[in-house]
């Protein structure tokens, strides 16, 4: 009976000590320059290059359509003195149709570019946030604050900024894919 009694007292003391320590323990907090983390992340750099390749292709198509309209217009002006009224109307209709198709293409291009940029950015930010959560858990952080342009963090010791360390780990993780 005495052994059980001592065991219970020991368990209560240990439990109380752990609870008191946990209550008074200083949380491990860090700060990250989130904009820099995302922009310097190799995954963002690669996604940006891929986006720029798509934009180059879209712009090449746009330039080709513009050149075709210019050529058609130039030919029309060169030939207009020799065209019948019906031929002039037909050529003007063709030029207007080409211009309308170009305008539709340009509008679609702008919408596609915005959608592609938004999709790419969301994917990269989600990758970064997921990694930050895993990194924080693995390194024992209680809180990792994001420092942005608005500077919600009014004061911090430089030692609390783990942006460089986190960026290196993030890029190593990316290269491992």
UniProtKB/TrEMBL annotation:
SMART domains in UniProt: OmpH
InterPro entries: Chaperone_Skp (IPR005632), Skp_dom_sf (IPR024930)
Coiled coil: none
CC annotations in GO: cytosol
Superkingdom, natural source: Bacteria
Keyword Transmembrane: yes
The keyword Transmembrane helix is annotated on this UniProt entry: yes
Gene Ontology biological process terms in this record: protein stabilization
Molecular functions per Gene Ontology: unfolded protein binding
Residues spanning the membrane: 6-26
UniProt keyword list: Membrane, Signal, Transmembrane, Transmembrane helix
Family to which the UniProt record says this protein belongs: Belongs to the Skp family.
Protein name as annotated: OmpH family outer membrane protein
Species assigned in the record: Taishania pollutisoli
